[in-house]
Design brief:
This protein is an alpha/beta fold. It has 8 helices and 16 strands. It is about 25% helix and about 25% strand. Strands 2, 3, 4, 5, 6, 7, 8, 9, 10 and 11 form a 10-stranded mixed sheet that branches. A two-stranded parallel ribbon has the order 1-16. The chain is globular, with a radius of gyration of 26 Å.
Length: about 325
Amino acid sequence: MLFNEQKNRDQYEEFIASVGIGKFSMMERVREKVDEALSDFIAKEFHGSNTENSTGDYLRNCKNAYMAFDCDDCEDIRYCMFLDEAKSSMDHSHWGRNTERMYECQACGYDLFNLRFCNLCWSGCSNLVYCDQCFSSKDCFACSGLKKAQYCILNKQYTKEEYENLVPKIIEHMKQTGEWGEFFPVEKSIYAYNETLAQEYYPLTKKEVLGNGWQWYDDQNTEESYRGPNLILPDDIAETNDDVCAKIYRCSETGKPYKIIPQELAFHKRLSIPLPRRCPDQRHRDRFALRNPRHLWDRECKKCKKAIQTSYAPDRPEIVFCEDCYLKEVY
């Protein structure tokens, strides 16, 4: 198949030979033609399969998932992302693997039960509150870096009776001061906002970030910091030699300097594909732009007019079908 048109083997091989997939200029023209050919294809309301009573995107084998993204084998979850094998959880991002009753937790996984406001807690933990990087621990409050611990508050050991008497008092005090009920504040992050996934999924300007009192990282490795020549990569990978690895190039999109490493050159030569004209960060952004955003719009199926929620914005060119109509169309 070429651009959705049936060809025989000779026609196909003749086309591939004529295209010259190792030439950057040729592949850019082909890319434009591909984008044009795919501009009005039929899309399913969400990416994924085998879901029941769920909304979100990139879901597989999920039941009762609401506003969930990139989740597999999950049940009864809300506002979650990047989870695998999770149940009865809300505002839990990343990991999972046999986790249940997780609330406002990040990067926690492997056999966890009833964690609240925790970060990077792993393996066999239960009943943790406001804990960070605790492992195989249970019944701990506001602890960090503990292993196989129980009945600890602020990393101090207590008896079971002392723990159960003191924790409710601390929670009541936190409610009065407004500290209770939310994940660790952004101001405590060791990373700037634009160094995290937040900037990719929910981009903000530097002014907006600083206005919220958060950190912003200014990349020093910019176009202005490089005073070297503006070198041009060879158009054809077949005409490219090892000398390209000793030079510095500028990103065609951002102007940021970048290099081609020997392993990268060998990979492109082996597959006969042209070298990139954009820096690694920009290539990542380009790939990321191919994914749908973490936002749902109310639309209707183009075929049956059924109301749907989809990550395809109303102004996009795709023809969006509900799952039932899509399956009937393609099968």
